[in-house]
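Working notes for the structural subgroup meeting. M.R. asked for a predicted model of this chain before we commit to crystallization trials. I am recording the input and output together here so anyone reviewing the notebook later can reproduce the run.

Input as submitted:
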Amino acid sequence: MRVAMISMHTSPLEQPGSGDAGGMNVYIHNVASQLARQGTEVDVFTRATRPSQGEVVEVEPGYRVINVVAGPYEGLEKEDLPTQLAAFAGSVVQFARTHHAAYHLIHSHYWLSGQVGWLLADLAGVPLVHTGHTWAAVKNAASADGTTESEARRICEQQLVDNAQTLVVNTADETVQLSRFYDVDPAKIAVVSPGADTALFTPGTNRNTEQSRRQLGIPVHAKVVAFVGRLQDFKGPQVLLRAAGELARRGRVDAPLRVLVCGGASGSGSVERYRELAREEGIEHITRFLGPRPPQELVSIYQAADIVAVPSYNESFGLVAVEAQATGTPVVAARVGGLPLAVAEGETGLLVDGHGTQAWADTLEQLLIDDPLRISMGEAAVAHAATFSWAGSAERLRGVYADTLAGFVPGAGTRQPAGG
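Returned structure, recorded in C-alpha cell form:
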C-alpha cells in the first residue's frame, strides 16, 4: 500500500515546540516511520519553507518527505496559507505526474491539509482519510483568552467531516466532541491513540536526574516543575507561572522551587510576555526559559523535573504527558480532552478541574510536598506510558486504511455542502 499524507503548514521534520510545530509533527513523523517499517510506503507532502531543504528527503526506506513550492519560502503566517491551497495542490499533482507516483489513499492532517486532500482524492479517485488534530469549534469552546478560530475554518472542517471516507481521532473523547460540535456520522470515525517513543524517553539510571540538573544549572535538591510545549495561552504556560507565583508566596514547599519553561513562541507570538508574567509574579529568579529542544534533548528536561505540568485548555491526546511519564516523571494536567486517557489519575499523576490559580497551586503543592506519593507515581508512570507505542498506533492505522479501501466505491460519492 502507498499512502500520500498531507501536512501543508508544517513539516514532520521541523523542531517541535517552535513556530507552528508541535504534537502533530511528532505524530506524523512517528506514524509515517512505523508505517514504513510495517510495509506501507508513505510520502508526506509539506510546503517548502527554505530552498536548502531539497524537493525529496528520504527519511528512511519507505518514508519520504516531499517539499513542494506554494508561495514564498518565508513571510507567510499560518493564517495566510489558505491563499496557497491551489498552488500547493497543483504542486502535489505535478510531482505525482512527473514521478509517476500513484497512491491508494490520501491521509490529510489539520483542516488546511484536509481541503487539499479532499481535492486530490477526488481527482485521483481514491478515498480520503482525515485527522483534524484540533477543531475550530472545540478550540472556541475552550478558548483561554477569548480569541476564536474563524467561522470559515469551522465550515471547512464541516466539509471534511461530511466528505472524508474516514475520520481518525486520537481518543473516544474526541469522538464525543465531534458529535457535539459537528454534524458527523459516527460510523466513519476510527479511534487510533498516538504513542510515545519509549525507547528514547526512559528514566535512565538513578543518576540521570542529578546529571540533568547539573547540565541545566539547577540545584540538585530543588523541587522542579516543567512545562514543555509551544508558548501560547491555549497551552497554558501562564497557568503554571501564576500557580508557581502562588506557591512561592506560600513558602510551604520544603526545598527551593524551580520552574522550567521549554518551548518557543507560537507563530508570530512572543516569549517576552511570559517572561514579563514571571517578573510580575516575582518568580523570574527561579524560572528558566529554554528554547525548543529536539526529542533527544527533551529527555533530560523531563528527567530533571519532579513534575511536568500540562495546563492546556484542550488536548486531543497529550503527547508531552506520555513522554514525561515514560521518563518516570508524574504529570499534573488539566482535566480536558484526551488528557484523562494519557494520565492515570491518582496513579501516575493528578488532574485539575479548570485553570484557576489556587486549584493549580494546591495540586502542585500536594505532589511537591508528598515525596512518597510523587515517587510512587513516577514509578507507575513508566509502565503506564509503555502501553502507548507508535508501532501499535501504526498497526491500528493500517487496519483503518484497509477497512477504508474495502468500503470505498470510486465515483459513488457526491460532494456534500458544508453544514450550517
